[in-house]
Every structure is written in structure tokens, then in C-alpha cells.
Amino acid sequence: MGKKIVLDTNVIVSAFGWRGAPHKIFKQCISGQLTFFFSPPLLSEIKLVLAYPKFNFNQDEIDEFLKLL
Fold first, then answer.
1. pTM (two decimals)
2. Domain ranges of the chain
3. pLDDT one-digit tens code per residue, 17-43
4. Average pLDDT over the chain, rounded to an integer
5. Which residues contact 29 (CB under 8 A, 6 or more apart)?
6. Cα 61 from Cα 6, distance rounded (Å)
7. pLDDT tens sequence across 2-20
């Protein structure tokens, strides 16, 4: 198990939508290099923010991303 971290909603949404530093950190979580912790309220907030029209993410993309979490 890697180092334990908590990412806020802004970092998670950035990891999903763009390929910068948040994306690299998120990939480390997925690969097991880092251990990502989150709460049910954080997951609810992530779902809400990913659905904002300004991001233009479709539901299939959102669903796939949420499965990774």
C-alpha cells in the first residue's frame, strides 16, 4: 500500500477532465502507488460537479470515471 491521500473535488474533476498534475496523481492512486480515501459526501459532491453543464462530460464518461473511484 502506498502513501495515503485525500483529494478534494476540484483535484478529482481536474484529474478527469485534463492531463495535468491532478491526472498524474490520480493515476498513481489507480495503480496503487498512492491510496486514495474519500467519504460518501465527497463522492456525492464529485457526482454533482461532474454533471455541471460547463464541463460538457457525457454520462457514459462520468460513469466510467466513477467506477475507477
1. 0.81
2. 3-68
3. 999 999 999 999 989 999 999 899 999
4. 92
5. 5, 7, 35, 36
6. 22
7. 799 999 999 999 999 999 9
State the Cα–Cα distance between residues 56 and 63, nearest whole angstrom: 14
What single letter denotes the amino acid at residue 22?
A: P
In the numeric block, the cell 456525492 is attached to: 44
**Quick one: CA dihedral 50, 25, 27, 69, positive or negative?**
negative
Which whole-number Å values give the CA distances from 41 to 5, 9, 37, in the listed order?
Answer: 16, 11, 12
| Residue 21, C-alpha cell as written in the block | 498534475
Distance CA 64, CA 38 (A): 18
Planar angle of CA 63, 55, 28, nearest 5 degrees: 55
Q: What is the C-alpha to C-alpha distance for residues 58 and 40, in angstroms, rounded to an integer?
A: 22
pLDDT, position 14? 94
